[in-house]
Amino acid sequence: MIDKLQQIIQQATTKEISNNKDISDNLAGNVAKETGSSLIEGLKSAVSGGNLGELSHMLGNSDTSTLTSNPVVKNIISSLTTKLGTNVGLDSSTAGGFASSIIPQIISMVSNKVQNGDFNISDIIGSLTSDGAGSALDQNGDGKVGIDDAISVVTKGKLGDALGGFFKK
Known about the structure:
mainly alpha, 10 helices
């Protein structure tokens, strides 16, 4: 699943850079790399932080204008802006503008694939977990982590129990 997300990231980033006069084409590879790492790290952080409701809502929403108000999206945009400035050398205005544009676009593309049945939220969340954390989040025991599990965790107040595997020392 991560490979499929990386393909979408590469496709969207290449297109966005070709339309952005402030980012030279020779930086495309570095910008795509930082975009991908920021997005994947942000999604993993949302899963490990217990933000399953926000994550599920985000992946179920393809409206780019409302995505920017989602806390997960805000964190990813902030992370990408910093990385583009620090690691790629873009000025803060260019980095912030690019991040604010590309992250909602990519999430919208993924969301469209979820809504069309091409991607499954449980597969996405499962690919972002490791060390059995996915099984800890599987509330209904169907072997998949999905929206129904996220809803169950939040509504039954078992968030701490479900995420216990993430915080083992």
